[in-house]
Structures are given as structure tokens and as C-alpha cells.
Write a structure and sequence with these properties.
Layout lengths: L6 H17 L7 H10 L7 E4 L2 E8 L11 H9 L8 E6 L4 E7 L11 H11 L11 H14 L4 E7 L2 E4 L2 E3 L1 H4 L3 H17 L10
Antiparallel strand pairs: 1-6, 2-5, 3-4, 3-5, 6-7
Length: about 210
């Protein structure tokens, strides 16, 4: 379970502010004002919890394999495997047996006659859309593509995995997986929580590269 560790501090600060307001002669909010604030939601803190996190393997790339640039060979097999993922939007990772190497999201619409789903469109970018101009930093696609091939050469297999969960709660609201996969802002929020969580474990090392 992942929770905002600042909740107690925020509560204490807000309580102190309220006490200071009364001592300085501030008037107490009328019932209608309190109801309006309650309807708008509280700013006292945010609690986010995810239960029963699951990573499902979409495709496992054998150790010592070589991934060609473009939609061909083994790279094409990985791209086509992404078609099996039914989620409209979501999070994914590249992982070895021991570690999550990179965590990302497919949080935009990749509508194109070439792609059967958004996940296929995102994975296609890793093999086909690279920026390598001299004097310019590689884009994420090129950088991860290079790391994939380098790691495979060391005798490590790599799996493309997609993320799911049983239950997501934000404060007192239960958010279903169906609602999550339709909300790009929420998907990106979960992506950042996952990256933070795995970095604390010494993983997601490819996310740290610039």
C-alpha cells in the first residue's frame, strides 16, 4: 500500500492555522460555506493506495538476442505481441528476472491504421522512432532501445510487461481499473508512483538516465 507520508504534517499545520485564526479574531465559516468546501473536497492531504499490483508478461525476449531497428524480425514480434493488451491506456515496464529496468506509460491516443491498440503504438516507437542527431541527446526511444540490446548481449533475458491492479483508492473514492485505463492523467500519476517505488528499491535505473 502506498500512502502520502505528509498527511499528518499537513493536518498539524492546518490545525495550527485554524487556532491562529480564532485567536486573531477570525470568524468561523458559516454552515453553507462549510458544505461548499466539503463538496469541493479537502486540501488537508491525499492518500493513494494500490492493492494487489500485477505485472503480466506480454513478450519475453531471449537472452543474447539482437533487436533490429524497425518493424522487422524479433522487433516486429515484440510489437505485434503488444496487440494482445486490451487496455486503452496504462503502464508497462521492461524487466529482467530480478529487476524492473524501465517503467513507462501509454497515456495518449496512437490512433493509426497501422496500430490495433494504443499499446502497440507506444511499443512501435521504441523500435522505429529514434533521434540520434549529432550534438543532440538521444530521445527515450533510442536510449531504451540501445539499453535493451546491450543488456541482452550480457546474457540476460528481458520481458515486456503490462501493469494492472485489483483496487485503487484515492482518499475515500474507489477507482476501478476500467476508470483508470480511460483517464490519462491518472495513468501518468500511477506511472510516477511506480517509478518512485521501484527507485527506492534500487530499480528503474533506465528511468534515471538523461
Amino acid at each position: 500500500m502506498l500512502k502520502d507520508g505528509n498527511g499528518g504534517q499537513l493536518e498539524s499545520l492546518n490545525a495550527a492555522n485554524r487556532r491562529g485564526g480564532r485567536e486573531s479574531g477570525a470568524t468561523e465559516a458559516r454552515p453553507a460555506e462549510r458544505a461548499e468546501k466539503a463538496a469541493a473536497g479537502s486540501d488537508d492531504g491525499v492518500t493513494l493506495s494500490l492493492t494487489r499490483l500485477r505485472w503480466t508478461t506480454v513478450f519475453e525476449i531471449p537472452a543474447s538476442s539482437v533487436l533490429p531497428k524497425g518493424r522487422k524480425g524479433l522487433s516486429r514480434d515484440v510489437i505485434l505481441a503488444a496487440r494482445s493488451v486490451p487496455h486503452r491506456l496504462g503502464c508497462y515496464c521492461w524487466a529482467s528476472t530480478a529487476n524492473v529496468l524501465y517503467c513507462g506509460s501509454f497515456s495518449r491516443d496512437y490512433s493509426n491504421p497501422q496500430f490495433q491498440c494504443n499499446f502497440e503504438g507506444r511499443i512501435h516507437q521504441y523500435f522505429c522512432t529514434h533521434r540520434r542527431e549529432e550534438g543532440t541527446a538521444k530521445n527515450t526511444n533510442a536510449r531504451v532501445f540501445d539499453r535493451l540490446n546491450h543488456t541482452l548481449k550480457t546474457g540476460v533475458s528481458i520481458a515486456l510487461q503490462v501493469f494492472s491492479f485489483e483496487d485503487l483508492r484515492c482518499n475515500n473514492e474507489v477507482i476501478t481499473f476500467g476508470a483508470y485505463e480511460r483517464d490519462s492523467s491518472l495513468v501518468r500519476a500511477v506511472e510516477h508512483v511506480l517509478i518512485w517505488m521501484y527507485k527506492r528499491r534500487g530499480q528503474c535505473v533506465w528511468n534515471e538516465e538523461g
